[in-house]
UniProtKB/TrEMBL annotation:
Its cofactor is FAD. Residues 1-21 form the signal peptide. PANTHER family: OS08G0158400 PROTEIN (PTHR32448). GO terms for molecular function: FAD binding; oxidoreductase activity. This is FAD-binding PCMH-type domain-containing protein. Keywords: FAD, Flavoprotein, Glycoprotein, Signal. PROSITE patterns: FAD_PCMH (PS51387).
Amino acid sequence: MESHPHVLLVIFFFMLQSTYSQQTSFISCLQAKIGPLTNILHSPTTPSYIPTLQEYIKNSRFNKTTTPKPNYIVTPSKFAHVEAIVICANASNIQTKIRSGGHDYEGISYTSIEPNFILLDMFNIRNISINVRARLAYVQAGAQIGELYYNIWKASNKLAFPGGVCPTMGIGGHISGGGYGAMLRKYGLSVDNVVDAEMVDVKGRILDRKSMGEDLFWAIRGGGGASFGVILSYTVKLVDVPEIVTVFRVEKVLEENATDIVNRWQYVAPVIDNRLFIRLLIQPVTIKPYGKMIRASFIAMFLGNSQELLGVTNKEFPELGVNKNDVREMSWIDSVLYLANFDNKTKPEILLNRHSDTVGFLKRKSDYFQTPVPKPSLALIFKKMMELGKVGFVWNPYGGIMAQIPSSATPFPHRAGFLWKMQYAVNWKDAEMEKDYLNQMRSLYDFMTPYASYSPRGAFLNYRDIDIGVNHNGANSYDEGKVYGEKYFLGNFDRLVQIKTVVDPQNFFRNEQSIPTSPAR
Ligand SMILES: Cc1cc2nc3c(=O)[nH]c(=O)nc-3n(C[C@H](O)[C@H](O)[C@H](O)COP(=O)(O)OP(=O)(O)OC[C@H]3O[C@@H](n4cnc5c(N)ncnc54)[C@H](O)[C@@H]3O)c2cc1C
Ligand SMILES: *[C@@H]1O[C@H](CO)[C@@H](O)[C@H](O)[C@H]1NC(C)=O
Ligand SMILES: *[C@@H]1O[C@H](CO)[C@@H](O)[C@H](O)[C@H]1NC(C)=O
Ligand SMILES: *[C@@H]1O[C@H](CO)[C@@H](O)[C@H](O)[C@H]1NC(C)=O
Ligand SMILES: *[C@@H]1O[C@H](CO)[C@@H](O)[C@H](O)[C@H]1NC(C)=O
Ligand SMILES: *[C@@H]1O[C@H](CO)[C@@H](O)[C@H](O)[C@H]1NC(C)=O
């Protein structure tokens, strides 16, 4: 098909024009509402733009010159700024991506498939306050989970919060996506412990639990914040922890009967004492002088002392052979550092370092398991992992309170009947390897199909995976949304769609995997 060059030119200028007017109207609207925009608005021509963009990029795959970048970055420091940004962005009809900690595995908090978008970056909104007597913490969206842990520990050595393992995750994304960590079998997900929230809706109003109502409050506890508004804060319940907890790490290669022990783990880890969380890492590793082999690492946290722990493991999981040389007693806050792989000389103050992590290239996927993988199949899977060479697994046991909370209590649906969740993980340093490693992971994902949950095959929102569906937010938005939406939310997807349709009917808060509005009738 041939187009007349003049027609193309006209279309081109029309597009340029509309982008230009969108942007100038956004800026003048913002100026009118909040005055001078110094330190708030960063345009690509200002020196602050690139450093601000890169500061919270947590996956080097989205740090390339070719990565789509925002037309502007806005860095509010007050709630009123957020209100103004939402009103002005909506009025100019420009897509707004929201970033808190930047850990999204697919970078969708700061890149976009739409040609024009702005980045609303929450890092300046990060107050935390702890009320020991009421056993509550108030934490703003731009704070990191490690900062929350540190503040709780400073206030009391008997209280904690059941959130995730990586300390630099942002509250805004981590909690709204259903965050989990080493206490999930005892206390559930982070969202099971949220009692209030503040957010800005599409009308630019600040809402709390009471004014947003129970439907919207339900949605932002696992349905992802970015489909509904800008999360400003969560108020969370604190949970009891003993002054001494115990950790261990036991590693076995296949030659040490790891297959038998992994097989047993499937039957034991989801039903054992709910104070015990035994995470299982399965990876191809090179061990000198033997060469490449599959290693299973059992990494555990127990809410009790070592004697009690050994009583539990000797009775319920003798095959693992945990002994008193493997176990280490420590405070809960030190267990946070241990599970985050800091060495044992590291002090809790590291949690206040907002850049304590090392960032490279990565890809993740997820699966849920409702039945144990038969032992002969485990052997085949490990063989496949050896052939592929790089992709590893992280298995996280469920059970305990996870099996008691109804699957409709929050948008996060994988409760009773789900034995564990699996993460597929590959990290690398050399940009060139991307294609190869993505292919390896997809191949392993295909290989796991017979064993994983199905109809639909489940996935975890916080393990964002663009392979399971993308929404272009056009005429087929609902149909596209249903594809990934039912994987993340199972039967809760429809309720999320209904709530979305009420609170944001024009789909201002949208991204590659947001909740769509109801199909037009
Ligand atoms: C190294 C690493 C370790 C991890 N470990 C765990 C773990 O142990 N447990 C676990 O549950 N998850 C884990 N995750 C996943 C993590 O929980 C998610 O990536 C989470 O979304 C990160 O939140 P964020 O604010 O840092 O991310 P961002 O990239 O800033 O945001 C993620 C999503 O939330 C939206 N969002 C962010 N802030 C707001 C806001 N204020 N209002 C509305 N929407 C918002 C974004 O638009 C985006 O859609 C890990 C991720 C990494 C990279
Ligand atoms: C992004 O690239 C810059 C160089 O342009 C580099 O300094 C920074 O460390 C990179 N960040 C990540 C997460 O790759
Ligand atoms: C954070 O706390 C400080 C000190 O109390 C206060 O001045 C500031 O307004 C707070 N910021 C936000 C965004 O709540
Ligand atoms: C958002 O902007 C659109 C026009 O772009 C407008 O029709 C709509 O009323 C606005 N929404 C709100 C809640 O102000
Ligand atoms: C592996 O299992 C076999 C048979 O059950 C047993 O004889 C052998 O001692 C075990 N090896 C190790 C290292 O535990
Ligand atoms: C700390 O780690 C070092 C090196 O791994 C080890 O030798 C030492 O025993 C550990 N100390 C404690 C108190 O566990």
